[in-house]
Amino acid sequence: MPIVNSETGETVKEYSTDELKQAASMMRGYNLISLCAAKSGHSGGTLSMMDVCAALYLKILKHDPKNYKWDDRDRVVWSAGHKAPALYVSLGYSGYFDVKDVARLRKLGSPYQGHPDWHKLNGVEFSTGSLGQGLSLACGSALRARLDKKDYKVFCIMGDGEQQEGQIWEAVMTASHHKLNNLIGILDENHLQIDGKVEDIKNVFPLAERYKSFGWNVIKADGHDMDDVLRAFKEANENSERTTAPTVIIFETVKGKGVSFMENQAGWHGKAPCGEELTKALTELGVIDKLPIEEMKKTAEDYHKKVLDELEQAQPKFSQNYWWNSQETMKSEMKPTRKGFGEALDEKGDDERIVCLGLDISGSILIDMFYKNHPERKNRFLSIGISEQDGTCVAAGLAKEGKIPVIGTYGVFASARNADQLRTTVCYGNLNVLVAGAHGGVSVGPDGATHQSLEELYMVGGLPNMHVSVPCDSVETKKATEAFLFEVVGPKYIRFAREATPIVTNAETPFVFGKANVIRFKGENADFAKAFEHKLASDYTDEKEDLTIAACGPMVPEAMRAAWILKKEFNIETRILNLHTIKPLDNKAIENAAKETGIIVTAEEHQKGGMGNKVAAVILESIKDYGHNCIMDMVGVDDRFGESGESWELVKKFEVSGEHIAMTAKKLYDIKKSK
Q1: Quick one: which H or E segment has residue 91?
Q2: Which domain CATH number covers 129?
Q3: With contact defined as beta carbons under 8 Å apart, do 256 and 43 qualify?
Q4: Half-sphere exposure of residue 110, counting CA atoms within 13 Å on the CB side?
Q5: Are residues 489 and 544 located together in one domain of the fold?
Q6: How far apart are the C-alpha atoms of 234 and 345, rounded to whole Å?
Q7: Torsion sign (Cα): 400, 406, 408, 412
Q8: Quick check: is 313 in a domain?
Q9: Comparing C-alpha atoms, which of 81, 150, 90, 76 is closest to residue 116?
């Protein structure tokens, strides 16, 4: 059924096959312009799905863009949430909004988030982004239709690499068992995922036979032949009428379809075209003269400027600009923190006990540095694919047999997707498994809430036997990784950032796992890092500071900047505690800071309390011994999810910057002085 007016039942527009082909080309163009404007996102998989999307949203789906809450509409679940740009273009082209507005993709405050958020954009049915969950959502929606005697259909868009997630197959069984003939799976079979060919990472083929074995109707079609696409949807609808089984349409597609230099290239999975590449791509698609390219670019630029202006106006103000590298002095080198993790594996991976497990984003978190320069280690790099729960227990099995397994993925998946496996198998078994929770905090940027880990210190920090480290820069990340490989035995979790962060330590900076460092601002310097002195807290003698900032991870450099602001603006002396080890905490360092300075502000790029609650507990428990009168406050994300935006924009937006830390500290200082 085409797009309809839900009040009158009239068809809004009927697309011919030729018009659908033209629409698919135009939609590919809008998609690429939005990705180029965002400077990030997923080109390959959005292009592979666009012919199917054009047919689905413009010809097959029963929906009304003017009444997006119409209860009798068909539903579409985008389980492959990273293909969100294709969803947004499909909605815009259908009439939910002006399709040109997708130029605001992944911008701060935009409804076009890196992964779909149904609260932010009309027409989005479910918030998705963690692969493997969408088919279960679709089952729930289809079951509701049956319970309430509704005749809508539920479509679920999935990727072939996504089939590596075990939950997919649980949902496959649920749909078959409950005879959900109103459920139609749409499977993008392009044979590529981030780390390479699906067959090489973890082979899921032949998918047709596997779905059939679970009692599903299976239809195969060419995802780029519009006649065949329409034939497949027609057959799926007929199956819904004549059988009690769910149906899956397996569309054979080409990743990056329509753009020669993107086609069948795994590297274009999560990459956006630059300006020159965009021009070449739109020319190949034959739409370069048909699209409002400059208008959309200006929309993106104007919107971004407006957002930045509003963001700057909301920042705490001081006598000068203390932002990173904004002055002639106090310059800082920037480097992705994750590089320290990769460098440690590169340099220390000769130990035959070390085995690394790849969970499909190996290049992104740099776990692939373990073997890139060492082909002889390739046999000790195991591709587990998009299978966090399985991978965690495989790692546990390796550890039980004497290996030192290293497993890593985005922190949201490394700590939460496999929470039970970490708790019961790894921690209860007290097994020597190193888990890397990469891309921690809102500074991950445009991917948005689903990929910004802000809760993992709660999840892993409370597990018995678990050791937790949150290093502050790439240098300290390397040291922490090496300590976890060879010094700390048992379950261990390292959390580090994705984007370039200031380097504030060096090879000589002390690092002892479980022991905090004290950092003191000693005066402005051409090199930001050299303006500070680092000592082990156990070697530190009280310098009568006015207050303490206890920080971990990327908030350590922000705390250092806050100390600079406090000294320059208010002549306040600050003790910084670098709590690179969250579990076990250096209780003595915290107790001394509470007793000697009387003010503690915690700073974490995490939900408030992940580290802060632990510090507060130490302070409260120490009162009986020290009898001190310490006041404290916490800087962190205030009980909310993240959103898309540039890394440093989000640091400001979520009020975890050095400026916000300094203002929080000043308020506590004024309270203390007034008493």
Answers
A1: helix 84-94
A2: 3.40.50.970
A3: yes
A4: 33
A5: no
A6: 52
A7: positive
A8: no
A9: 81
Picking from 552, 523, 574, 568, the residue whose alpha carbon sits closest to that of residue 656 is: 552
The DSSP bridge pattern shows strands 574-578 and 581-583 to be unpaired
Note whether residue 243 is domain-resident.
yes
- Is it true that the peptide bond before 206 is cis, omega within 30 degrees of 0? yes
Going by C-alpha positions, the residue among 364, 374, 360, 359 that lies closest to residue 336 is: 364
**What is the predicted pLDDT for the residue at 1?**
65
Can you list the positions of beta strands (E) in 362-486?
381-383, 404-410, 434-438, 467-469
CA 324, chain centre distance (Å): 24
What pLDDT, in 10s, does the model give residues 531-578? Answer: 999 999 999 999 999 999 999 999 999 999 999 999 999 999 999 999
Q: Which residues of the chain have pLDDT under 50?
A: none
Identity of the residue numbered 197: K
- Find the domain containing 657 and state its range: 510-674
**In this structure, are residues 384 and 408 in contact, taking their beta carbons and an 8 Å threshold?**
no
- Treating both helix axes as pointing N-terminal to C-terminal, what angle do 555-570 and 658-674 enclose, rounded to 10 degrees? 50
| Number of domains observed in the structure of the chain | 3
The structure's pTM equals 0.97
Q: What is the DSSP string of 588-613?
A: HHHHHHHHHHSEEEEEEEEETTTTHH
pLDDT of residue 378: 97
Residue 624 has what pLDDT?
Answer: 78
C-alpha distances in Å from residue 618, one per residue of 4, 451, 587, 632? 62, 31, 6, 12
Q: Are residues 97 and 141 in the same domain?
A: yes
Tokens of 404: 């030192």
**Per the domain annotation, does 360 fall within a domain?**
yes
Same domain, 419 and 458: yes
Check which CATH number belongs to the domain holding 628 and give it.
3.40.50.920
Closest C-alpha to 455, from 605, 649, 647, 644: 605
* Domain endpoint, select from 295, 327, 362: 295
| pLDDT number for residue 592 | 96
Say whether 57 sits in a helix, a strand or coil.
Answer: helix
- Asked, for residue 235, whether it belongs to a domain, the answer is yes
